[in-house]
Amino acid sequence: MNIFFLAPSYMNLERPIIHEMERQGNIVYFVEDKVFPNSWHFKVCRKKLIKCILFRKQEEKYWKKTIKDNVNFQLKFDLLFCINGTSFDKYLYDFLKKNNPHIKTCIYLWDTIRYYDFGRNLKYFDKAFTFDYQDSLDYSNLTFLPFYWVKPSSILSEIYDISIIGSDHDNRYEIVSKIYKQLIKENFNCYFKIVIQKCQRPHISIWSLISYFKKVTRRKKYIIDYNIPEIISTERISIGMTNKIISQSRCILDTDRECQSGTTPRVIWALALGKKIITTNKSIRNLPFYDKDRIQIIDRNNPYIDTNFLRIKNNTGNNSNYFEKLKIENWIENFIK
Asked: Which of 248, 246, 250, 257 shows the shortest CA–CA distance to 279?
């Protein structure tokens, strides 16, 4: 099968998907899903009308130029497999459909529709899946499907009581730093790394300056005080390193984006490997793999951990069959079978 694979290149999460599709005998043509920062499809934007006027049809213009400049788009494809599709446009769909009348289409959302209007494109896809449980309830044509996980080549010894690796958004640094201070006092072995952008100042534009001054008027301390350097990284940490740390940890700390009800990849990876989870994601109670003996939910505004949860020995849980379906070789069948 020849697959046109449109997906974001984020933390290399697309690479295991490409590798598995190729391992199963498919030919994959990967195209990176472009994010337009000024897109009016972002739900958090309060300047929709202005952005609609200034950046009208930017996705269509982008694909017209991209297709014109790339001869590989003329190849024959059996499947359009799209992840998110922030840049997806009817122009791309019509082009592929015209050249490949029998092409099948499938989309997977690993961000929530409450954050970005992915729902506008669902009508172009034969099958649609989402990692976000609430979105699957709100949209009848969306099927709930958590992230994939990849079985590690070897199981490493556990050397950390708890770990987290992630970028700084939705107050993640503030939450993690409070927990770090609590656990260090109690002599827990922690591996905490929060990736901080090297430049924390706003981009120089009229909108960023307005946003900046609004935040300054709301609180005196706009620039976050990153006062625990040992938990900070200014370089992105690879998936390989992330998986290694998860394998070496008894428990994984997770902080969520408040507007979403799905779980981060590390939650799935960790639970599949028999680890415990401490998370700020209250919606995890509604998910089919929730297990109160392995998952502790904490308040993001007052992130205090019951350390007895960390001290109790892990159990394997009773969701092994569910996570077997999420192994990447089985997960991928939802899209290409």
From this structure: 257
